[in-house]
Design a protein that fits this description.
alpha+beta; 2 domains; 4 helices; about 25% helix
Length: about 325
């Protein structure tokens, strides 16, 4: 009995013959206060509300950590990609040093002749949609830069499309495909890759020798770009005379809506595209390439419709050619 005179009786489970009619079912713990009874279930399981709270907390943690993990993974892969670009560019520079300042051919998988010198493309046909990694190693045609970089992983970004052995491409100005308004005929033959770059002041548009890179300097002239998939028979084509994207060369997006590229002084950069049009507004389309696919623009060339979209295009045009070939006022 307590101070108020109430008799409190605590009953636990006991032998069945000792229980009265007011005893609860087994598994319950009861407090008898005078003639009133209160019982609670003695259970070790979760209630529905508790379970829902736990699920909500787990979902919240996943929502927080999965994007962080993806971002960290992308940054790690981007670091590897930038390292690959630097290695390729240093090999590109070493090739020029050993060939009297001549630049290696820019278009992938092509060959050419310059006077008595037979030129080989920087990337060989061993990387053109091979069946396996061993097939690349067994094929001797790995390109002119292979003697400088004998590691097939250096020719592919970790974020590259599955099945593609090479994802890097040169820009058109790096002794690449002839683009309207950027070259002067060499006079020997169109198939012999002897056309020189047009000069505008101190700027050489199409580069064929390291000594052509004067204004702007090497730190501002692009060489390699991570396209994300195997380059075509050309290189990364960007117009000089017109403010529009070339239909077969879409701006890459697989590095957090940006691109990685290298410059002629050997350093590499990451560019975050400024325009939402560049990221989501271009009519991108997949095109068959052997047993795989590459990307292009549906309908061909595309003219930016926004100021930010034009900014992205002109930034890459300047890095490629050293300048624009049209008035800067021309645009959307």
């Amino acid at each position: 009995m307590n101070e108020t005179g109430a008799i409190i009786m605590n009953h636990r489970e006991g032998p069945r013959q000792d229980r009265g009619p007011d005893w609860p079912e087994p598994g319950r713990y009861c407090h008898r206060i005078i003639d009133q009874q209160s019982c609670s279930i003695n259970s070790y399981g979760f209630t529905l509300i508790e379970l829902l709270v736990v699920i909500a907390i787990i979902a919240l943690l996943l929502a927080i950590f999965i994007p962080v993990t993806r971002t960290a993974r992308e940054r790690g892969q981007r670091t590897v990609c930038l390292s690959n670009l630097r290695q390729l560019t240093l090999a590109w520079m070493a090739y020029a040093d050993e060939h009297d300042s001549r630049l290696v051919l820019g278009p992938a998988f092509n060959k050419g002749i310059s006077g008595a010198l037979r030129l080989e493309s920087w990337l060989g046909r061993a990387f053109l949609y091979p069946e396996s990694r061993s097939a690349v190693m067994e094929n001797p045609d790995k390109g002119a830069l292979w003697p400088y970089i004998r590691n097939i992983d250096a020719y592919r970004c970790p974020r590259g499309w599955a099945g593609h052995a090479a994802t890097y491409t040169t820009v058109a100005a790096a002794n690449g495909i002839r683009v309207e308004g950027t070259y002067v005929r060499g006079g020997i033959g169109g198939s012999e890759m002897t056309d020189f770059g047009e000069r505008v002041g101190s700027t050489v548009l199409r580069l064929t020798r390291m000594t052509d890179i004067v204004s702007p300097g090497p730190a501002e002239r692009a060489v390699f770009l991570d396209q994300g998939h195997t380059p075509g028979g050309e290189d990364f084509y960007v117009h000089y005379l017109y403010p529009k994207w070339y239909g077969a060369s879409t701006p890459p997006l697989h590095h957090a809506e940006g691109a990685t590229l290298s410059m002629a002084d050997g350093h590499a950069e990451y560019w975050k595209w400024k325009g939402r049009e560049t990221i989501a507004g271009l009519p991108r389309k997949l095109f068959p390439a052997g047993s795989l696919f590459t990307e292009g623009l549906e309908g061909g060339d595309f003219s930016p419709q926004t100021d930010d979209g034009l900014y992205d295009l002109q930034r890459l045009q300047r890095a490629t050619w050293g300048r624009l070939g049209y008035p800067v006022e021309e645009g959307p």
